[in-house]
Specification:
With 260 residues, the chain is an all-alpha fold. The chain contains ten helices and two strands; from the N terminus they run αααααααααββα. The longest helix is centred in the first third of the chain and has 27 residues.
């Protein structure tokens, strides 16, 4: 009678490797979220790997490209908005909850450069991510309308478009406009009748601040040396390009008269 061949047990290291892989993926996602939030899609993949404490090869094992990693972080942020809306679906005072939720989404999004770039571009989130967000938002909208806090002739398409408009306005507000003021003004269009939102107070002007010559954002004056004119490198480069373009246009208009 033939003896059964004994099978060796699976190597004990396999579960540990799977746990390490999950841990590394979580580290990469966490590092990518903070990096993209600060610098947008321009952040090098090597910087994300450095923040995560792993090699670039480890990043590529979990995400085939930087674009795939970027999409994953944006989808995670949208899912957080969706989860928050679902938790508020049965909250008291649905009108107040609805408007506070809209303001919070704009406030958190405008701080996230990567999310702003994704929403302003041709970004298409993972299947179901956008649909889930819209469905959760529609529930908050319907409850607010039933409470007569939101006009009945708007739908979730109107609200999502308004959110995008608020995000754009908050990014482009001048230094004398308080954060959230443009969002409050826009959200007033959703209210029935002539109820007016109490707008945030305008920020006090500080003596040690000036306005960026390009975008108008506040710039803290330097203690020594030449006064600061720009809020960062991006605006400084933009101003340099504008000066170079103006100089080139001026040079092209110069007509040299022939010598007699």
């Amino acid at each position: 009678m033939a003896q059964r061949r004994k099978t060796s047990p699976p190597p004990a290291a396999a579960p540990l490797l799977r746990a390490d892989a999950r841990r590394n993926r979580a580290l990469v996602l966490q590092a990518a979220r903070s990096a993209f939030e600060e610098g947008g899609l321009a952040v090098p993949l090597g910087e994300i790997a450095r923040r995560a404490g792993v090699g670039a090869g480890t990043v590529y094992r979990h995400f085939p490209s930087k674009d795939a990693l970027f999409r994953a972080t944006v989808a995670d942020r949208i899912r957080l908005f969706t989860d928050a809306a679902r938790e508020l679906a049965s909250a008291d005072d649905p009108g107040v909850v609805f408007f506070r939720y809209l303001a919070a989404v704009v406030r958190l999004s405008v701080r996230n450069k990567g999310l702003c770039e994704a929403l302003e571009g041709s970004f298409e989130p993972s299947p179901g991510v956008e649909e889930d967000f819209r469905a959760a938002l529609a529930v908050l909208l319907e409850r607010a309308q039933q409470a007569d806090a939101v006009r009945k002739d708007v739908d979730v398409d109107d609200v999502t478009a308004l959110l995008m408009g608020c995000l754009s306005m908050e990014q482009r507000r001048g230094p004398g406009v308080a954060p959230g003021r443009m969002t409050a003004l826009a959200c007033d269009s959703l209210r029935p009748g002539r109820r007016v939102t109490k707008l945030p107070a305008k920020p006090a002007v500080r003596r040690d601040e000036t306005a960026c010559a390009v975008c108008g954002r506040p710039v803290t004056a330097a203690r020594t040396g030449r006064p600061a004119r720009y809020c960062g490198g991006a605006c400084r480069q933009k101003a340099h390009r504008e000066r170079a373009r103006a100089a080139a246009e001026a040079a092209s208009e110069v007509v040299l008269e022939p010598e007699v």
